[in-house]
């Protein structure tokens, strides 16, 4: 009888460890929130999707590629640099050139960065998410939507205008999803054409 008692005592401990597993998993998820493990200076990420007549591009870039720094724009010089970058980014047809026959027109642009105010980015409404804790690095996220009258005539998206405007980009990793094609493309200055089919 006596010999069984130690093993019986272990049962509550086992139950406790099992019960605490979900809590541990949630903690880990929280720790990773807001981190950018793929933040590499010079490298941008671009998701391109064509659905019906809507072409959407999502650019995720270290802020340094676009303005040369990743801190809040406090000086007049910094603000001017950001305004010039925003002006370029909002010229969607120049940043992301499409086939003329497809008749794509920019419909919406949304820019967001944890260290820059929505007003400076030309946004009318405040960003929905709270500013992330600044670890010295910051990204800029851009959503670009174009509506194409003849999406069937869309063969390529030319990103050379973006490379020309922002020499901070050494490479852009593209993820592509169209009805005809899915996959990854790597763009570099001088080779900046995304084939869509
Ligand atoms: Zn950085």
From TrEMBL:
Keywords: Signal. It comes from the Bacteria. It holds the Pfam family ZrgA. Residues 1-25 form the signal peptide. This is Zinc-binding protein.
């Amino acid at each position: 009888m006596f010999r069984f008692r130690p093993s019986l005592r272990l049962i509550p401990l086992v139950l406790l460890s099992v019960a605490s597993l979900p809590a541990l998993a949630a903690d880990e998820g929280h720790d990773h929130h807001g981190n950018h493990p793929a933040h590499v200076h010079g490298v941008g990420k671009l998701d391109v999707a064509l659905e019906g007549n809507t072409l959407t591009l999502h650019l995720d870039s270290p802020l340094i590629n676009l303005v040369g720094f990743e801190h809040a724009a406090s000086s007049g010089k910094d603000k001017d640099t950001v305004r010039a970058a925003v002006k370029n980014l909002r010229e969607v047809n120049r940043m992301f050139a499409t086939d003329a026959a497809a008749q794509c027109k920019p419909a919406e642009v949304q820019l967001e960065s944890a260290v820059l105010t929505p007003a400076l980015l030309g946004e009318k409404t405040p960003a929905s998410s709270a500013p992330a804790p600044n670890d010295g690095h910051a990204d800029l996220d851009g959503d670009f939507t174009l509506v194409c009258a003849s999406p069937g005539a869309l063969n390529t998206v030319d990103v050379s205008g973006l490379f020309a405007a922002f020499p901070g980009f050494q490479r852009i990793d593209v993820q592509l999803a169209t009805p005809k094609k899915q996959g990854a493309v790597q763009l570099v200055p001088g080779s900046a054409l995304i084939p869509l089919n």
